[in-house]
Amino acid sequence: MPPAILRHTSHLARNAAQWRNVAIGLLFCCLVCVVSAVFVASRVTVVPYIVQVDKHGYEIAVEPVAPSKVDSRLMVAHVGRYIYSLRTVFADPETQLHIMNFVYNSTPVNTSAEKKYKEFYAGNNPTIIGETETTQITVNSVLPLSGESWQAEWTEGRYTLTGAKLSAKNYRGIFATAVASPTEMREVLVNPLGIFITDFNLSELF
């Protein structure tokens, strides 16, 4: 084979090898981009916003909810609802399950509060109690003790299924709270502000 043809063939071989290397590099870059996109998509976070409703009924986003900016009134409302959901007894099992889910969604796992509410339900099964009587809760006060602790007082009235009053007792409780902004849609739906009860101690007032 003439030298010119050999040089041309060698040049084509080198070009082919170079383009093959370029193609492999581009394929690797595409693979990295796809994996990165999937990773980022799987870690999409949901940021809840505090909204203000104007006189026309339109919602205006004010600012994202930050743990340090949760209004104290919202904390009071959450602690009060936690008490109501934990101690109320309904005759209707479906309604009872609904308020018990609030306690579940407002209590972090592996905390003192989780252990205590499970022990309370074990000794005071509301679905069984609800077959013969109900318990109505009236939250009288929720006051701050510190940045994360709240003292609440409430009244529990026990009634027969016909509405006859059996008893009324007053209680006091200390509740430790924590705020962790939700990052997933499921968390937003069940606890949009990320307010949690991490511990509580209850006592009857005499």
Question: How would you describe the overall organization of this protein?
Answer:
- The protein is α+β, with helices and mostly antiparallel strands and 206 residues long.
- It has 6 helices and 6 strands.
- Strands 3-4-5-6 form a 4-stranded antiparallel β-sheet, with helices on one face. Strands 1-2 form a two-stranded antiparallel sheet.
- Helix 2 packs across helix 3 (93-105).
- It is elongated, with a radius of gyration of 30 Å.
- The protein starts with a helix and ends with a strand.
- The model has no long low-confidence stretch (mean pLDDT 82).
What's the short story on this structure?
By secondary structure, the protein is α+β, with helices and mostly antiparallel strands. The chain has 6 helices and 6 strands, in the order αββααααβββαβ. 44% of the residues lie in helices and 30% in strands.
> What percentage of amino acids are in beta strands?
25-35%
Q: Which strand order does the major sheet show? A: 3-4-5-6
By secondary-structure content and strand pairing, the structural class works out as: alpha+beta
Give the overall pLDDT as a whole number.
82
Cα distance, first to last residue?
112 Å
